[in-house]
Amino acid sequence: QVQLVESGGGLVQPGGSLRLSCAASGNGFSIIRMGWYRHPPGNPRELVALWTNGDITDYADSVRGRFTISRDNAKNTVYLQANSVKPEDTAVYYCYAEILSMSRKWDYWGQGTQVTVSS
């Protein structure tokens, strides 16, 4: 069993910055992909940024150039640095991980953290 623990959400002013963290814990697993999705009010869940084993990163067009995903391999943690945030970045942000364990792939989600961009 793997757990994803998120931190770093909250209220931020437009143009400001914040950093989200997501740590994976458990035994006997390796991470294939790990990253962030978000669920804006009244809209479906969408990809924000994803890190794939091999240091491949992918971003939504709406955040490319403003958000940066990074990974600390030793800590099984990914970070999302969000700069120049906009009100439309307001959403519940969910950490996601595709895990390899016991020769199978598993999808895990964090509990979600609220990010509100408002003055």
State which percent range the strand residues make up. over 45%
> What structural category characterises the helix and strand content?
mainly beta
**Molecular shape:** elongated
Distance between the amino and carboxyl termini:
40 Å
- Radius of gyration using CA atoms only: 14 Å
- Largest sheet, if any? 7 strands, mixed
Calculate the mean pLDDT score and round it: 95
Number of H- or I-type helical stretches: 0
Question: Helicity level, as a percent range?
Answer: under 10%
Q: What ranges have pLDDT less than 50 throughout 5 or more consecutive residues?
A: none
Beta strand count? 11
Give keywords.
mainly beta
Walk me through the structure.
The chain is mostly beta strands and 119 residues long. The N and C termini lie far apart (40 Å).
Give a topology summary.
Layout: E1 2-7, E2 10-12, E3 18-26, E4 30-39, E5 46-52, E6 56-59, E7 67-72, E8 77-82, E9 91-101, E10 104-109, E11 113-117
Parallel strand pairs: 2-11
Antiparallel strand pairs: 1-3, 3-8, 4-5, 4-9, 5-6, 7-8, 9-10, 9-11
